[in-house]
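All the exercises in this workshop are built on plain-text protein records. A record pairs a protein's sequence with a compact description of its fold. The structure tokens are whole numbers drawn from a learned vocabulary of backbone shapes. Once this layout is familiar, the rest of the handout is easier to follow. An example says more than a description, so a record of this kind follows.
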Amino acid sequence: MEPYKEPWYATALRAGLELVGWIGLPIALWPHSIPAAIGVDVLLIGVPAVFQTPGDKPGTNIAVPGWATVLMVLAELGGAVAAAWLLFWPWLAVVVTALAVLTCFTELPRWKRLLAWQRPVRA
């Protein structure tokens, strides 16, 4: 897989929504369950930091197929939308939801590349 150059706006949208999920979900869960609040950040931050698709970003800790990376991004976007609806005014939650849908469209070229069948290379 050749290195992928992602557009800046796709990266910015995804990163902004990741922050909403990383910060918002623990805040929303804290009054109900402190272990859940900590666990959600371990899942949303830790799992993508450890498991990566080779060729998607520089460096790979534990290699996973492209579909796993797509699912991790969808989980991050879902976390941001859930946090918005739990914490924000409804109009702002609608904005976050619309940005998450827009992010899915900006991610399509990357996702198509990640989901494309690649023939294993033997050394």
About this structure: The longest helix spans residues 90-115. The beta strands are 51-52, 62-63.
